[in-house]
Amino acid sequence: MKKICIVTINLNNKDGLEKTIKSVLSQTYSDYEYVIIDGGSTDGSVDVIKKYSDKISYSVSEKDNGIFHAMNKSIDVCNSEYMLFLNSGDYFYSDNSIENTLKELDCDIVYGNEEKRFKNNRKIIKKFPDKLDDAYFRKDFLPHQSTFIRTKLLKEKKYNENYKLLGDWIFLKESIIDNKATYKHVDHIISSFDCNGLSSNYKLILNEKKKYYSNINSVNIFICTHKEFEPIVHNEAYKIINAREIEPKLPLKDDFYSELYQFKYVADNLELPKYVGFCHYRRYFSFLDNMPNMDEIFSNYDAICSKPKVLNTNVKLQYLTCHNIEDLYIIGGIIAEKYPEQANMWHNFINGNILIPYNMFIMKREDFKEYIDFIFSILDEYLKIIGTDINKRIYDNYEKYIKGFYPNNSVEYQYRIGGYAAERLTNLFMMHKFKKIKTYPVIVTEDKYKQNKKDNPWRLGYPFII
Q1: DSSP string, 289-317
Q2: For 461, left (φ over 0), alpha (ψ -120 to 50), or beta?
Q3: Most buried of the four, 214, 241, 283, 379, by CB within 10 Å?
Q4: Do residues 363 and 436 touch, judged by C-beta distance below 8 A?
Q5: Contacts of 317 (CB under 8 A, 6+ apart)
Q6: pTM to 2 decimals?
Q7: Burial (Cβ within 10 Å: 0-12, 13-18, ≥19) of residue 322
């Protein structure tokens, strides 16, 4: 494995591209990968790339969705320990820029100083601080053209493509501040950065920063757990809520309610932002830390949920394979009495084959409060009918709850009737309440039941996306 991969992103900047390539090729240290990602240029840039093709490890010229999409494409093909992005028009400050920094590459992120070039040949040297904190990132940037990043870090969490100019800032800010990546400042100039045209984008950069912080402040996604764990997300919008540390006013403990235990506590006790969401310590929406802009999504959609499953059977029979189907009939009777306008929808749902899984969603605050009222109005009535001695109900109906062919055939598993019933009720609420729903795949991080592929054909290897 080589130590360094240098990446150049280009779109219709033929002269700047050649200047950058010459700067890379003039380095005294030459044992590097060199990757060029061109966005389908029509100005002769492709001819420049062909001219130096014997010095380039990988290149492609095709239309992309912006600079951070192009940078993410380069991450996929990089095979070196560190990456540095030196885009067209930028160049190394000296011929030994890499060699001077090589011995310092011993942590996740290593950044140096830069020369900034403006119109009328005006230049300034910008030095960066040794210590970085959130206050620094709120007012300033790190120079990606003077920053070496461990490739493993970039492959684990790529650049956020929802922003035109802020993707690298978001990556570095969240890696260093939120994810506690190790970093080091080296006090020499690594690159020369072309600032011409930057001032025209300054307003956009400020607007994108406002958008980023506004988005964080406008949504909380609560990670439901009952134990200590290490989350795979670190965006400030995520909040861990441990069932063992809360006590909502409910007749049973969290074993019965599963995630609903936390849902109820959040609804009754916390000051909530504009949008409220939930995921699980083993299951996350696929966008992870690259949070989409919620205002933009909710201008077109009514809610967000996990990607629906298409079952091989209907919802009712799928429930029968691992639970007591009488639960669904009791709940259907409650719905017919309390919400008669939804009775036919419930009937069609449990006899259909589409299921939104996992009790994962993001809703507007007022819709979440309505959802909680709906769910608990039904579950409270259900408990009045069956009683609160759940163990007795399971043992009295043992053969209806415990299915010998199902991997999770335990009383502990079956005790969580409330959570599993609520998963079906969440489907009903969304179908009745919302006209347009945005869906995301789910990333699963842990095999709780430790089933191998032979014993459990559903296991795919972790983490995986479904």
Answers
A1: TS---HHHHHTT-SEEEEPPEE-SS-HHH
A2: left
A3: 379
A4: no
A5: none
A6: 0.68
A7: middle
The SS3 call for residue 407 is coil
Q: Which residues pair with 117 in a beta bridge?
A: 123, 194
Lookup: tokens for 41: 């240029």
CA distance 361 to 275: 10
**What are the two backbone dihedrals, phi and then psi, of residue 355, each rounded to the nearest 5 degrees?**
-135, 125
Q: Which two tokens stand for residue 127?
A: 């030095």
Our CA angle for 349, 357, 319, nearest 5°, is 55
Mean pLDDT in the chain?
90
CA dihedral 302, 305, 307, 309 (to 10 degrees): -100
Position 244, amino acid: R
Phi, psi of 115, deg, nearest 5: -95, 135
Assess contact for 291 and 237: CB atoms under 8 A: yes
- What letter represents residue 227's amino acid? K
Please answer whether residues 428 and 386 qualify as being in contact, where contact means their C-beta atoms are separated by less than 8 angstroms.
Answer: no
pLDDT (tens digit per residue) in 114-163: 999 988 888 999 999 999 998 899 889 999 999 999 999 999 989 999 88
Under 8 Å between Cβ of 83 and 149: yes
First to last CA, the chain: 32
